[in-house]
Specification:
The complex is a heterotrimer. Chain A is an all-alpha fold. In chain A, 75% of the residues lie in helices and 0% in strands. Chain B has a single domain (2-125, 144-284), classed as ABC transporter involved in vitamin B12 uptake, BtuC. Chain B contains 11 helices and 4 strands; from the N terminus they run ααααβββααααβααα. Chain B has helices at 2-32, 39-57, 65-91, 99-121, 145-167, 169-179, 181-186, 191-216, 226-239, 244-264, 270-284; strands at 125-126, 135-138, 141-144, 219-220. In chain B, the strands form 2 sheets. In chain B, strands 1-4 form a two-stranded antiparallel ribbon. Chain B has a two-stranded antiparallel ribbon with strand order 2-3. In chain B, helix 1 crosses helix 9 and helix 2 (39-57) crosses helix 3 (65-91). By secondary structure, chain C is of the alpha/beta class. In chain C, a hairpin with a 2-residue loop joins strand 9 and strand 10. Chain C has helices at 41-48, 70-76, 94-102, 110-114, 118-137, 153-165, 183-200, 211-217, 235-239, 242-250, and strands spanning 3-12, 15-25, 30-34, 56-61, 64-65, 79-81, 171-175, 203-207, 220-225, 228-233. The chains are: A mainly alpha, B mainly alpha, C alpha/beta. Chains in contact: A-B, A-C. Chain A binds chain B through residues 61, 108-109, 111-112, 114-116, 118-120, 122-124, 126-127, 130-131, 133-134, 187, 232, 236, 239, 243, 247, 272-273, 275-276, 278-283, 286-287, 290, and chain B through 34-35, 90, 93-94, 97-101, 103-105, 107-112, 114-116, 118-119, 226, 230, 233-234, 237, 266, 268-269, 271-272, 274-276, 278-279, 282-283, 286, 296, 298.
Chain lengths: 313, 298, 255
Amino acid sequence: MSRSTLIGYAALAAGLAVVWGIEIFAIPWTNPYYANIAIRVGFNLLAVMGLALVLGFTGQFSLGHAGFMAVGAYGSASLALHAHVPPMLAIPLGGCMAAVAGLAVGVPSLRLSGDYLAVVTLGFNQIIVVLVQNVPALGGALGLTDVPVATTFGVTFTWVLLGAVFMRNLLASAYGRTFAAVRDNEIATRSLGVDTTRVKVTAFVVGAFWAGIAGSLLGFYNSSIFPKQFEFDRSIELLTMVVLGGTGSLSGPFLAAGLLTALPEALREFSQYRMVVYATLLIAMMGLRPQGILGKHELSDVVRGLWRRRAVA
Amino acid sequence: MTLFIQQVVNGLSLGAIYALIALGYTMVYGTLQMINFAHSEVFMMGGFFALLLARATGVAENPTLAGVALVAVATMASCALLGAAIERLAYRPMRKSGRLNLLITAIGMSLLLQNSALLVWGTNVPFPDLLPRHTWNVAGVTLSSNNLLVFGVTIALMIGLHHVVERTQMGRAMRAVAVSRDAAALMGIPVDRVIAFTFALGSALAGAASMLWVIDNPRVDPFMGTMPGLKAFVAAVLGGIGSIPGAVAGALLLGLCETMVSGYLSSTWRDAVAFMLLIVILLYRPAGLLGKNVAEKV
Amino acid sequence: MLLELQKTGIRFGGLRAVQDLDLRVERGQLYGLIGPNGAGKTTVFNLITGIYTPTEGDIRLGDRSIVGIGPVGVATAGVARTFQNIRLFGGLSVLENVQVAMFRHQSGTLFESVLRAPRFHREETESVAAAHELLKTFGLAEVATLGAEELPYGLRRRLEIARALATRPQLLLLDEPAAGMNPSEAHDLMHLIRWVRDTFHVTILLIEHHMPVVMGICERISVLDHGAQIAVGTPREIRDNPVVIEAYLGAEVGA
């Protein structure tokens, strides 16, 4: 095993130690209100990660990301309710079900490009919502209740850490380069013998998996899920986070997901303005800085840049 | 059989309204190659404009045929202004910065209009009964005055639109811009004005659609545009986006499919049908029923 | 015989963009494809590389037909190309642009990448080394870490050729490699192309408008006009062919 890999695994272990340290020593004495916000930020980090891969790094315009959250949430909750699968196993299985859904949607639709893909994924989102509303076993419009509670701060952020390491390693690999190649020039990518449909489907499936994890965690946190949670506007919310954070960045959307989840909570009394603010932010961002806060950069680049500037001065 | 004919009547009536909205999507796509996501909100705003105008003119309390017609025309004009304003303020500055950015701006515009309307007017606002409702029973099939109104208005507007697009200077300019914006600009066509006009025209038709909609479903709501808007967009894609006859054909087809599903299966599945139809058609004919395939030039 | 087009043609609606084209490129040859603007040269490239499917005739690479196998299939069969309007991956570095071309020779799985398994490290080290080697021979070593978009125009063309070679092709198609270059740059490029052919043992088919380049390095030349081949032969034969002179004077004299 190489040195960089060892450092990577050590960093992951350290991160997990911190997360579980907080879980054991800090959470019991923390105001549950803040713990709740932190956990919700975690869900959005997981969901936005997949969309950052699909939209930001691979350039495929998906408007149905919440649909994959729904598959994960309903899949894992059903497993727990009907088959008595323990939640800790049901969560990754929910992710896998979402990944299968990603494959099923991706294989036919990723032949389409741009606007058409956007519309088909949006349609998929709507179909999923109608589907869960109409299947009695999934609780109809009222959704599923009495889902066992299993999601804690530690569980959520263990998945966030795993997801972040997964993404980082994936992006800094031969696969990561093919994602960017497809985004930058699909025809040239194909001319190099890279099967671009396969690349896009891979991005889609990976993105769906992490959305599914986010959905599963959500179900095991609230103890209930209902169709309204996964409608089109949820997909738009995730889209906003990626676009604001920066298409082609991972930490940028993370930053945006954190801000856009925590800020509205902090400004509770202005909650009816939340969507107006979102919308204005989106439009203003497109006008002023269309590449997003971080553009194609990562937070680490920015920190390094500041450091260097100080060193020069 | 009567059920079938009944659903055909209902389907065509629904499809006609979709068609009026779909035309706005397809014309804008023709000139700018963008999905104007805010178009469904122009439709929604049309409902509120109609309500405000009907109250302001006293037509709400005291409806006369002439008064309702006046409100309808004023609603169309307001929507036209709104559409042109959205184009001018939000889209025009973004035109050079890529399609993804334009699409996201449109999504932002749509959210902004929805939530502003929510703040100002709230949800589920009752709309006054403007026209007396007659129904006739023809061999077991119910035909309402609203059906006739929808058919009449839609056909009249289609004829008018056909005239504008085919016979007028502006219509010719629109078609030229749709073929190639750059070439049209080189020929001295004022492209910006043509695009603004396209938005205004499409928005006016959406205004007419919302007038017909609220007369039949007497409530206005900030989110009332979402579903009809999505469906109309699907209809435009079905017909081959950019094609005017395609949008009408797609809308009627979609309206029929939906009412058939409501009539023979269950109305709860109705909303899924549009999207399933969309996905199936796009997969077999990616450019829509009447559209042409355009490949990227290598 | 490496590449053979047999009575190949394509129609777009009523337009016959290419018709009845017979083209035979020997292994190791440096073959030129010339003709006035709009003669259908790039269309021929798009036919060979599977972007278009011919409506008539056959295209054979070695002993098999490559019609209908699509761009990825053609590339996998050993055909690489550059584009008239350069198509680099703007968001990737120069080095990474070349590494993308090596992807199809790598066998590491996605999970090996994510888990940073030994094979990932081995393949990554190998591809970085090979890409650096290639960049060095193309005089791009110093700019390896720059973004592809930051490169000056001339270097972009070079990078595109280097990237195409990184797929280890048997046949390399160059679409106007000297476009936009001044005579001295074009002269250097000419040597580079010949050197590439000799070093990488690759067969080259190129479209070019710079007559000195074509006449200087190609061993055999086909002339296209209005989608049809009007002459084929050695540079000397082409230069003296009255039909070719007529086609060029009738349309426009190649730059």
